[in-house]
Amino acid sequence: MTAIQRDRRFYILLFLLVLVLGSNALLYRSPLTSQVLPADANWVVIGSLIDLAVVAPLLILFLKRKERITVKAFIAWMVSGLVFARFLIPSAYFEPFTYVPLAAIGIEALIVLAELGLVALLIWRLPGIIRWIKSHNESLLFSLPSAVEKRVGNHILLRVIASEFLMFYYAFASWKKKPSAGEAYFSLHKKSSLIAFYIMLIHGIIIETAAIHWLIHEKSVILSIIMLLLNVYTVIFFIGDIQAIRLNPLYVQDRKIFVSLGLGKRIVIPMEEIKEIKWEREAEEEKINPKETIDFIAKDFETLPPHCIIEFKRPLAANLFMGLKKNYTKTAIRLDEPDRFRALIEDQKKI
């Protein structure tokens, strides 16, 4: 019933958005425009500006209900709406309001400058970030984002920069490092075909780049360069992801479980936040809901069940691709040595 209500709400919002955009388009770009609009149409134009700069952006943001609504997102859509209004409304009617899109673009420019200021602050505080990382005996995959957050801030731009740095670091600067090993370390990928699958994808992308790039290059140089850059970025990401998987096994330290599977997802689970752990058959039989459970199961050519499902006392934040964060109430994990991991966790719970 809830799903039906959500779908109904989505279609109602979509209908209202189409109605707002369509009515304004008909008002200014139809054969009846000159007959419908009065000579002094300032109030009509003001109403259209409100529609395109306020109402339509709000409808779009509510349609994208999976994303958190922020002031920055609203301003970005508002600027887009005003720029669209400038092209939609004929110059004869829009002339008294030509300053409005320029003012909105100016606000957006100030936001961009503020974000560039954050980048400058990040560079300024880089020595302190490096010292913080060295003082904490954690994997760089976990320590770098935490250091940036504590020393600079939690802005999404900073998280994206940290995520991109990790990708390039693991792709190009981590080849001399060896995977951490010991009683508290547990690999997740060695008994799967995940690495082989990634290598196969990289080979496929390289062959596709070599074959298609020259074919498209004859028709559109710009498109061929864009596709080449995207393919190069994808290969770098896959290489970095492989290295991150190899060099960052699950580990238990300071009564916390640090678990990751490449660059795309990671979470820190304090032992005191564990409500319940289901093992083996009980974990295999539980249906995993991706909205509330983050899984750390190395992809294989067949779907494999988890060895354990850990339920939290409260939702915990997980770091995802490109610095995104999402709260989960459970995690499903598949390990290469599940029995040894279970023994360690049960010993930790006794302390």
UniProtKB/TrEMBL annotation:
<keyword id="KW-0503">Monooxygenase</keyword>
<dbReference type="GO" id="GO:0004497">
    <property type="term" value="F:monooxygenase activity"/>
</dbReference>
<feature type="transmembrane region" description="Helical">
    <location>
        <begin position="221"/>
        <end position="240"/>
    </location>
</feature>
<keyword id="KW-0472">Membrane</keyword>
<feature type="transmembrane region" description="Helical">
    <location>
        <begin position="74"/>
        <end position="93"/>
    </location>
</feature>
<feature type="transmembrane region" description="Helical">
    <location>
        <begin position="41"/>
        <end position="62"/>
    </location>
</feature>
<feature type="transmembrane region" description="Helical">
    <location>
        <begin position="99"/>
        <end position="124"/>
    </location>
</feature>
<feature type="transmembrane region" description="Helical">
    <location>
        <begin position="156"/>
        <end position="175"/>
    </location>
</feature>
<protein>
    <submittedName>
        <fullName>Beta-carotene 15,15'-monooxygenase</fullName>
    </submittedName>
</protein>
<keyword id="KW-0560">Oxidoreductase</keyword>
<keyword id="KW-0812">Transmembrane</keyword>
<feature type="transmembrane region" description="Helical">
    <location>
        <begin position="195"/>
        <end position="216"/>
    </location>
</feature>
<keyword id="KW-1133">Transmembrane helix</keyword>
